[in-house]
Amino acid sequence: MVKERGRKLIAQNRKARHDWSVLDTYEAGISLTGTEVKSLRQGRASLVDAFATIDDGEVWLRNVHIPEYKEGTWTNHEPRRSRKLLLHRGEISRLLGKTKESGLSLVPLSMYFADGKAKIELALARGKRKHDKRRDMAERDAQREMARAMGRARKGMR
């Protein structure tokens, strides 16, 4: 049996970096059932509106949609069930302290297979306000315009 190598992206939360200021990221394993893994291998999942919570010293991923496996039988899973995340005890206690004291949230950025195991990239993030989003968009536009000007100058154009 040949073991998979590398990283295969399943789903990505594209709006996460737009709506949240990411302070730190963590990689966590996910506790899944067999039909969930088969559905993920087909590249079917949605991280829209997903978040993580810490309950009784365990981290839970909530509101992630993994559709039912088409070839599954009565053993199929519930599409939006809560799934346990696998983190080290020290990481959990650090996350618990930061989310309690400073009002930060746990937001999933992407879900992928790393060496054949389902993983999720979890961000410790603070919500952005409207003016923060506008400032970020203005900075991005300014950077893009500077890069264009530098490219034109390099080519000898004005």
TrEMBL record:
InterPro entries: SmpB, SsrA-bd_prot, SsrA-bd_prot_CS. It is found in: Cytoplasm. GO terms for cellular component: cytosol. GO terms for biological process: trans-translation; trans-translation-dependent protein tagging. Transmembrane segments: none annotated. The keyword Metal-binding does not apply. Keywords: Cytoplasm, RNA-binding. Residues 127-158 are annotated as: Disordered. PROSITE patterns: SSRP. The keyword Cytoplasm applies. It comes from the Bacteria. One of its GO terms (molecular function) is RNA binding. Residues 134-147 have a biased composition (Basic and acidic residues). Required for rescue of stalled ribosomes mediated by trans-translation. Binds to transfer-messenger RNA (tmRNA), required for stable association of tmRNA with ribosomes. tmRNA and SmpB together mimic tRNA shape, replacing the anticodon stem-loop with SmpB. tmRNA is encoded by the ssrA gene; the 2 termini fold to resemble tRNA(Ala) and it encodes a 'tag peptide', a short internal open reading frame. During trans-translation Ala-aminoacylated tmRNA acts like a tRNA, entering the A-site of stalled ribosomes, displacing the stalled mRNA. HAMAP family: SmpB. Belongs to the SmpB family. This is SsrA-binding protein. It comes from Halopolyspora algeriensis.
